[in-house]
Amino acid sequence: xxxxxxxxxxxxxxxxxxxxxxxxxxxxxxxxxxxxxxxxxxxxxxxxxxxxxxxxxxxxxxxxxxxxxxxxxxxxxxxxxxxxxxxxxxxxxxxxxxxxxxxxxxxxxxxxxxxxxxxxxxxxxxxxxxxxxxxxxxxxxxxxxxxxxxxxxxxxxxxxxxxxxxxxxxxxxxxxxxxxxxxxxxxxxxxxxxxxxxxxxxxxxxxxxxxxxxxxxxxxxxxxxxxxxxxxxxxxxxxxxxxxxxxxxxxxxxxxxxxxxxxxxxxxxxxxxxxxxxxxxxxxxxxxxxxxxxxxxxxxxxxxxxxxxxxxxxxxxxxxxxxxxxxxxxxxxxxxxxxxxxxxxxxxxxxxxxxxxxxxxxxxxxxxxxxxxxxxxxxxxxxxxxxxxxxxxxxxxxxxxxxxxxxxxxxxxxxxxxxxxxxxxxxxxxxxxxxxxxxxxxxxxxxxxxxxxxxxxxxxxxxxxxxxxxxxxxxxxxxxxxxxxxxxxxxxxxxxxxxxxxxxxxxxxxxxxxxxxxxxxx
Length: 522
Fold this sequence. Notes:
Elements: E1 2-11, E2 14-25, E3 30-34, H1 39-42, H2 44-54, E4 63-69, H3 81-91, E5 103-105, E6 108-109, E7 115-116, H4 121-130, E8 135-139, H5 143-146, E9 153-157, H6 160-168, E10 194-195, E11 198-199, H7 209-221, E12 225-228, H8 235-240, H9 251-264, E13 282-283, H10 291-295, H11 305-308, E14 313-316, H12 324-328, H13 331-336, E15 338-342, E16 347-351, E17 355-360, H14 379-386, H15 391-395, E18 399-402, H16 425-442, H17 454-461, H18 465-477, H19 482-498, H20 506-513
Parallel strand pairs: 3-4, 5-8, 8-9, 12-17, 12-18, 13-14, 14-17
Antiparallel strand pairs: 1-2, 2-4, 6-7, 10-11, 15-16
C-alpha cells in the first residue's frame, strides 16, 4: 500500500516542499530510504522503529520503501522523522491516509515517541501557507514560532500519540485549531542591549567626546565605524552601546530576523519563550573565526555572523588580528547589504544590512602615537600589523576615529555644581530617531544616508558653493577614491540631519572629513 505525507527541506531561508512517499511491499523486513538523504535522515529508520514500538504502534514486518521527492534535492536533519512515521502508519492501515491530505508535518522523534523541536519552523510555516496547506503539525516547542504566520492552522504535539490525536480527533478536519504567539512589549531604544540585568547606557562611557559623536552619526545614518585607540580607551564600551541608539525594529524586521535565527537553529527551544525577536542583534565573533563562520557557508550553507547581525550591529574587535582573506570577504556585502553563497548545486542569498563597528589598537603593543608612553614596536612591525587591512576595506568604513588614552580625571564623574552630566542613550536615541525621520521623509524608499548613491546623493545634499568647493578640494588634496569621497558626503548629510539642517553646510563637510583618519598611507 502507498501513502504520502508532506514535509519540507530547508535551502537557505526557504523551505522547499518534499513529498514523503512510503510503499509497503512483500519481501524481507526492512526499511529502505531513497531520495538523497543525509546521515541524519538515514538514521531516522531506527528512531521511527523505536518511537512506533514505544508508542504502542506497530512497525510493518515487511519491506518498507521511503522515497523523499524530489529525488535530486539533498535532504538533511531529523525533521523528516514525523512525516516518515505518519506515512508508515498510513501505508500499514493504522491511520486513515485521507487525514494526511493538505497537512504538512515536521519533527524529530525520540525513542520514546516524544517530539523534539526542529530548526526552520517559521520558514516551514511560510512555505505551507504558500502551498495552501490546511494545517501544520509540528513539535509543541515550535508552536509559538510557527503561529507567527497568519492564515495557517498550527497543530502542536508533544509526542507521536498527540500527533495522531490531531489527525484522528473530531473537529480538526476544518483546520481551525491554532495557538496564539505571546508577544513581549516593544522595548525602548536604550533597552536594546543588556549586560546581565544591567542596561548598557552611553552615560557610562567616560570622556571620548569624539568617539561618542561618531557613534551617534553611525546610528543616525547607518554608517560603518572604525575605532582605533590604545588599550582601555573605551572602544568596546562604545560599540556595545550602539544598538541602544538605533530605532526599534519594525514588525517586518522582527519577522525577518526571526526567520534568520530559526533557519540557523538559534531560537529559544522552550514553548514558554516564543521566538519573535524584538531586539536588534549584536554579534561579536572572535578574531580566530573562519570565513564560513563570518560570512556563512559550509557543505550545507548556513548563515554566518554577518547575516546573524542583520538589522543590528556586527562588532569586530581586534580587527587587525583577523585573517586578511577573511576580512576581504566583507567588502562586497558591506556595499550591497546581502551576500550570495554559490555552490555546485545551489545559489543562496542571505541578507546582511548591518552597522559594522571595528576596533583595533594602533600597533601590536597598543601605544603608538601616545604622547606620554613610548611604543615598543618598530616601523616594520607596525606595517605588518596594518597590512591585514586593505585599502578597499578601509574605503568602506565611513567613520575612522582615533581615540586618546583616558586620563585619571576622566574616570571620575564630575561633581562640580552645575556641571553637565554625560548624555544618556535615551537622549541621544531621540536625536537619532528624529534624524531618521528626516531621512525617511526625504529619501526615496526610506533608505538611510549610507545607502544613497550618485545623483540622488548630490541632489539630497543640497551643497552650496562653499561646501562644494571644500569637498572637492579635500578629495583632491587627500587623493580620495570616488567611493571615499562619496562616503564623506554621506556622513556630512547625516550630520546635517542631526543638526536639523536641510542643506549640507561647510562645517558639516569639515566634521565629516575629521572622521577620515586613515585615507593617507599608513
